[in-house]
Amino acid sequence: MLTGATTAAMLIALMLDAAFGWPNALYARIGHPVTWLGALIDAGDRRLNRADISYGSRRLAGIVLAGAVIALTVGLAFAISHLLPDNRAGVILTGILAWPLVAARSLHDHVAAVARPLAVGDLAGARRAVSMIVGRNPDLLDGPGIARAAAESLAENTSDGIVAPLIWGMLLGLPGIAAYKAINTMDSMIGHRTPRHEAFGWAAARIDDVANLVPARLTGLLFALASPRPAAVLRIMLRDAHAHRSPNAGWPESAFAGALGIRLSGPRTYAGRVAEEPWLNGEAPDPQPRDLARGLALYRRAMVMLAAVMAFIILLGG
């Protein structure tokens, strides 16, 4: 249940991440919760996703893995949360524990790393940077293609990496944000329509779709409200969001495209295969290097607005 205490803890997590990210010294010493989850999921993938079993058995094995990873993550987070004091110190400690499960700083830094070389015409540097955040072949991308790929990643991951984990944390505390991170990490690792993972990753992908249903739409609303013309952006989002291949990604991406006056999605190449995706805000021009900087500014305004909404909820909850 959403309370002032859970919201305060998540706001602390957001502020810590915005200020510090996840420091390299901490990563070198203890790693990161996502890498811990990734190791667990990878071990399950290698052990259970066997080529010598039927399609149905592989799907069942994927369901078992998804259930086991979520149950283990929630159980551990629940046990930790019950060890924390039921006072302000407990709220602060919950925020500190939730801090690495929010990716506001790293998302901004990764996209800024694309924007900087792109702005000075360094396509090789921009391609290297964009290869860190998208799955398509960067060697096939020109300047507008690089900007488009980075803008789409920024829009979608604002929902997946920030808004969604915070919402689940506000609703269910530390177990909620931990469960969401487990779900989203599984989807990113095995929730793909490839010969190896189409059956095994089916459950991970479907659970992730459900977990992001509301956050994706709220992220689109945030982008609209943070733009100079909210009503027009909302119209574009409501018109184009359903055209996206994902049931969720189209909402933040179409709002982002409308807010910046650019087109996103469209045809792209994965593993040598051209995917003929429809355009979002298709009547607008392709993004240019300056649009990526404008997109980062829009992202920052949306994050400030999100923090303000959380602070208002805290005030209402006492």
TrEMBL record:
NCBIfam families: cobal_cbiB (TIGR00380). Converts cobyric acid to cobinamide by the addition of aminopropanol on the F carboxylic group. GO terms for cellular component: plasma membrane. It is found in: Cell membrane. Pathway: Cofactor biosynthesis; adenosylcobalamin biosynthesis. HAMAP family: CobD_CbiB (MF_00024). It holds the Pfam family CobD_Cbib. GO terms for biological process: cobalamin biosynthetic process. This is Cobalamin biosynthesis protein CobD. The chain crosses the membrane at residues 60-84, 162-183, 298-317. Keywords: Cell membrane, Cobalamin biosynthesis, Membrane, Transmembrane, Transmembrane helix. Its main location: membrane. Belongs to the CobD/CbiB family. It is a multi-pass membrane protein. One of its GO terms (molecular function) is threonine-phosphate decarboxylase activity.
